[in-house]
Amino acid sequence: MGRKETLFRMPLAITLACSVSACSIHPAPFTESHFTLRAKNNIQRMAAYQEPISGAISLGEAMARALKYNLELRIKQEEASLAKAKLDLQHYSLLPKAVLNSGYTSRNNLQASTSLNLITNRADNSPSTSQDRQQISTDISLGWDILDFGLSYIKAQQSSDEVLISRENWRGTLHKLMEDVRTQYWRASTYERLIGRLKKLQSRTDAALANSAKRSRGYETNRLVALNSERELVKVKQAINDLEQDLINAKIELARLMNLRPGTEFSLDISRRPHNHLRINMPLDDIFLLAVSKRPELRQNEYEQRINIKESQANILNMVPSLRAYATGNQNSNSFLLNSNWVSVGAAMSWSLLNVFQYPAKRHVTRSKQQLLDMKARSLTMTVMTQVYLGLIRYDYFIDKLAMAEQLLSVQKRLTRQMRLEAKASRVSEQELILEEMNELIAEARCDIAYADLQRAYGGLLASIGIEFSPTAESDVPLDVLAKALEAGWDAALEHIHDADLIVNETRPVQG
Predict the structure, then answer these.
(1) How far apart are CA 410 and CA 18, in angstroms?
(2) Which residues form a coiled coil (predicted)?
């Protein structure tokens, strides 16, 4: 009896020991050295495997680097790859279920029993057995459930729509990225073109400011005039600092978009092509229709609605009884069996009545979600149409703003040339000349910034319409090849617009 009690208590003791050990688990934080090593690894991998900078970066190369190396866009690419991998995995759920089982059993004694004759009501006390103490069993079963197949087919269709949604997310991120690169590139090129003159003018301003401060403390000139002159020079210096800070931020932001390590030295190709004035000669309603049909957000909403419709179909299918057919091949080492190998086939049907009672609630959820998605589609339509309309207005506004900035720069250059002549003739002071040179520099910077804003409006208008203009970045495509493809992509975008009854004309030269 003691031995039986020991055998009975052993599983209980093992279970209790496992429970106690599970309760004794404590948090195990990483060490500081681990975090440091991980940080070094992240920094090294952040900009790893990138083609080095070999010269001045053109707009096409900046776009290519952003398309190929920008981490936010690569996240969207990985999300698309993950969605495709999930779809590939979902295909396996359509196949029949195949299960292989193998087991070994052993007893410390024989499984023996006595019997009772139910007719004579006499007991046969001689023990007998029909099983060996040790047995090995193996079976392989193949089953196919019609209901599971139908539900898996619907889930695979939903997964395929998820792949398309991830593609539209990538497109939206791509459009925004290219728009930002264009803007920051031209603002950063303004910094490169003007930084030398800014530094030189700042040195002259500092010298003039020191001279003005000295004069304001003396008695050889009117102190009020000297202080006013000093104040104007301080304003000039402040304007120089503000302009420099605003433009240097653009270069830092451009480096981030290209995934260059902060502090990396690089130069830009500051040459410019004349901007093509885009004129849209088609009805506004047709432009709206083109934009609403092409924008990634609305396409994504369409796929989400289709996923929800598939979900309602799955809810209906869940109410259908499940019919399962199976075939199993078995093998057992029990020596008492007459047939140790056998095949069994069968079919079974089950019906979850709870799914029938749950259907009204599930139908209400899917209908509510469909109404929500439909309302979002209408809201997105209004947003897209508004963005397109504002894009058209903004584009025309920046065309005029650039023209006015160029006109102001032309006038300011003539005024500065005249001021230099007056300064040579000693009819104006050095402070007045510096002030006009600063005004010319600011006018030139504003002209460049207006050009950058026009480029942003230009890219934003194409993006608001949803025009596809960039190829997919493959890891093995050389950077220069991708840059040329991107530059051709913008031209192709214009051709695409031209095919949609939008025309490009009136080349507007931009003054350097």
Answers:
(1) 86
(2) 226-260
Segment 356-398, tens digit of pLDDT: 888 999 999 999 999 999 999 999 999 999 999 999 999 889 9
Tokens of 156: 């695979």
Q: Which residues pair with 414 in a beta bridge?
A: none
The pLDDT tens digits of the residues spanning 7-22 come to 556 666 666 666 655 5
d(CA 474, CA 458): 26
Contact 172, 297 (CB under 8 A): yes
Q: Which residues of 228-253 are buried (b: 16+ CB within 10 A; e: fewer)?
A: ebbebbeebbebbeebbeebeebbeb
Instruction: Please state the pTM of the whole predicted model.
Output: 0.78
Place of tokens 């605003």: 246
Sequence-separated contacts (24+) of 360-364 with Cβ below 8 Å: 362/315, 363/312, 363/315
- Structural domains of the chain in order of their starting residue, each with its CATH number: 55-103+140-466+474-508 (1.20.1600.10)
- Is residue 385 a contact partner of residue 454, using CB atoms and an 8 Å limit? no
Provide the pLDDT for residue 374: 95
Q: Give residue-wise pLDDT tens across range 30-48.
A: 889 998 999 989 888 887 7
Residues 6+ apart with CB under 8 A from 50: 65, 69, 259
- Which residue type occupies 285? D
